[in-house]
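TA notes, week 10

Several of you asked for a full example with nothing omitted. So below is the full record: structure tokens for the whole chain, then the designed sequence directly under it. When grading your own attempts, check the secondary structure regions first.
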């Protein structure tokens, strides 16, 4: 998405969920969404073989005793 499309997405999404968006904050919201999209691209572009299996569900508490800290 280009900046104009992201701006439209921000406006429409805020309206759809009933989120008031202060015009003063709008540029920062758009900038943050642009930054998040660039970060996501790094993960989406990372090549994975077709034979890879999905990881099991991560449960950090698995194997810990009550009150035990990692």
């Amino acid at each position: 998405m280009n900046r104009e499309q992201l701006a439209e997405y921000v406006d429409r999404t805020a309206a759809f969920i009933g989120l008031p968006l202060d015009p003063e904050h709008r540029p920062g919201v758009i900038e943050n969404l642009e930054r998040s999209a660039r970060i996501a691209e790094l993960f989406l572009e990372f090549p994975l073989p077709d034979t890879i299996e999905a990881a099991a569900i991560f449960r950090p508490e698995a194997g810990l005793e009550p009150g035990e800290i990692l």
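The radius of gyration is 19 Å. Use that as a sanity check on your answer.
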